[in-house]
Predict the 3D structure of the following.
Amino acid sequence: MEFGNGSAILPGMRPRILIVDDLKEILVTMRRYFVAHGFDVDCASEREEAEALIGVNEYAVVVTDLQLTPVRSNEGLEIVRLLHHESPQTKIIMLTAYNTEEVEKEAGKYGVSSFLKKPVPLPVLRDAVTESLGR
Amino acid sequence: MGTTLLEAILEPGSLTPMFQPIFNLGGIGLKLHSYECLTRGPRGTSAESAAVMFEYVRRKREEVSVDRACVQTAMQAAALLPSEPCISVNVHVRTLVRDRDFVSDLLRMAEENSIAPWRLTVELIEHMCPCDVQNLWRALDELRTAGLRLALDDVGSGQSNYSMILDCQPDALKVDAYVVQGCHADKHRVAALESIVALARTFDSQVIAEGIQEPADLDTVLGLGINLGQGFMLGKPMSIQTLLKRSQSFVAPMACARA
């Protein structure tokens, strides 16, 4: 079997980011926006897809929705936990329409750098991504 | 919500088979030993990368359905190959353990595509220890009885370890690229390769070096008595169309029987 690998932030390279949201329309819009602003963008619409991408590639930043399906709630936190253990250098930005203090506290424990309430204007999200990269 | 990635993977016609040659390295020039059939997922999705697709499939615990789809795709494409080369297909150990009909269905797919069992090797891949060894042994017996050969994939990494070698007693050990790459300049990698070669001798198994990318590594594995290899330096995975164009330049194998 073959295995690929990708590096996130080598000098001179575009930062590689992963965007996770169950709404494909949002992913299409975000991908277009961030590619236009100099990022390499991967997208995932399921938790397992995001986890697989994180297992194979390295990301400078992961932007994830908290709730990825109506049934399995707070799956974004599972992604955050995985990143905390397997890719602690990756910056994490969490988006949610229903954030509670409890969830925010939990996410903070696993190194989430920003917690943004949806809907988030794209320039605001880009600022958060840029800031998390220390730019 | 749109289509899930799994649904996209299982959509008929969405998988692309790719064939990577495995060569006999000894003697003058390279001689084709067999082709490993790899699978790429749907274009324009994360699963276009095989590594991502199979990691996703394992996390979804959907190895059975996707292995079935990959084997079906491989057989249909392999049926188009000239001169009836040997081919290997990847199957998760978990699939063999869970799906009691998998082997009979694999044999049926082979027959439907006019692929004789002696041409087939099942490459066993595993990322979790099999919990039901009895079921695994039953499936492996069925494969052997039908005349297929067994290879253990990724030896030296992950779960392809001693217990898997003991449980599967494979005809071939495929040494993971992690062990092979850079071996010409690393005595520890050489030691690992030597131990695998010695182990294979005891089990009467062949050794196949994966991921050969440098002439110096090729020389080293040959020096250790490893006569089978694959890697980008020797031949990249090719689509069936490319392979049909190039197949004239390879020497067809006489047989895949153990040397």
